[in-house]
Specification:
The chain starts with a strand and ends with a strand. The chain has helices spanning 44-51, 74-84, 100-105, 114-127, 143-155, 173-189, 201-205, 216-223, and strands spanning 2-13, 16-28, 33-37, 59-64, 67-68, 85-89, 161-165, 193-197, 209-213, 230-235. The chain has one domain: Rossmann fold. Helix content is 34%, strand content 27%. Helix 6 links the parallel strand 7 and strand 8. By secondary structure, the protein is an alpha/beta fold. It has a 6-stranded mixed sheet, with helices on both faces. It binds adenosine-5'-triphosphate (ATP). Adenosine-5'-triphosphate binds at residues 11, 13, 20, 38, 40-46. Residues 2-238 form the ABC transporter domain. GO terms for molecular function: ATP binding; ATP hydrolysis activity; transmembrane transporter activity. InterPro entries: AAA+_ATPase, ABC_transporter-like_ATP-bd, ABC_transpr_LolD-like, MacB-like_ATP-bd, P-loop_NTPase. This is ATP-binding cassette domain-containing protein.
Length: 238
């Protein structure tokens, strides 16, 4: 589903180019559930931003289902992302003036009668246990409920790829565990490929596969060499 080749990303810090990511080769199979862990600043969010087209690589190739994404123009990226990639963030990023239902509806692509749209959103809200919260504003929802709405918003167009960046980072452990279950259950039932960046080891341990991302600058200082950037941490058969 996802294939990355010779990917490099640098950022300018004080006028100096600092390499952040260097990934010779990385493949993610269709339907795979993958957690990515690593130290703060190692480039986990940058990697998700590159995969979702929010950032562009300096070099390298990114393919999704064989389609070269590194060649897409900005406007093409927006359309591609809307149909193919769901993105869940730590801080939900719901629009405060819209209800839970409207926050989901606004993300929906494709034309359909408003009745059909409403029924679809209500079905999703029910799946995450929020059937009686559709007309609540984000401020009237708990943090866990807000994250559920954000997950529904990310999945409502049934994207083949679901990305989540620290989706449990600001939640208590019990709610975090529920959100981890929800992401794994919903992505499994919809056959979505799921890539989650997390510091939450409890969450990472629930995934069949876990990659560790090294901080290449720290590693280079310590060893004098540039290691492979992504390392398989755990892989069990599913
Ligand atoms: N726009 C930018 N300009 C310059 N440097 C940046 C930019 N975005 C990120 N960086 C730097 O790139 C490195 C990787 O950042 P990134 O946010 O990807 O790390 P992370 O592994 O997700 O960290 P955390 O776990 O703390 O969220 C950091 O050193 C960060 O300061």
């Amino acid at each position: 589903m996802l294939h990355i080749r010779a990917l490099e990303k640098q950022f300018k810090v004080d006028g100096r180019a600092v390499p952040i990511l260097n990934i010779p080769e990385w493949r993610v199979a269709k339907g795979e559930k993958l957690a990515i862990t690593g130290p703060s600043g190692s480039g986990k969010s940058t990697l998700l931003h590159l995969v979702s087209g929010i950032l562009r690589p300096d070099r390298g190739e990114i393919y999704m289902e064989g389609q070269p994404l590194h060649d897409l123009k900005e406007s093409e990226w927006d359309a591609f992302r809307a149909h193919n990639i769901g993105y869940v963030l730590q801080d939900f990023h719901l629009i405060p003036s819209l209800t839970a239902r409207q926050n989901v509806e606004i993300a929906m692509t494709g034309r359909m009668p408003s009745k059909v749209k409403k029924a679809k959103v209500d079905g999703w809200l029910e799946r995450v246990g929020l059937q009686d919260r559709g007309s609540h504003l984000p401020s009237q929802l708990s943090r866990g409920q807000q994250q559920r709405v954000a997950i529904v918003r990310a999945l409502v167009n049934e994207p083949p790829l679901l990305l989540a960046d620290e989706p449990t980072g600001s939640l208590d452990w019990e709610t975090a565990d529920e959100i981890a279950s929800l992401l794994l259950d919903l992505s499994s039932s919809g056959a979505h490929t799921l890539i989650v960046v997390t510091h939450d080891l409890n969450m990472a341990n629930r995934f069949p596969k876990c990659l560790h991302i090294h901080d290449i600058n720290r590693m280079r200082e310590a060893t004098g060499s540039m290691p492979a950037k992504l390392e398989m941490h755990k892989e069990v058969s599913v």
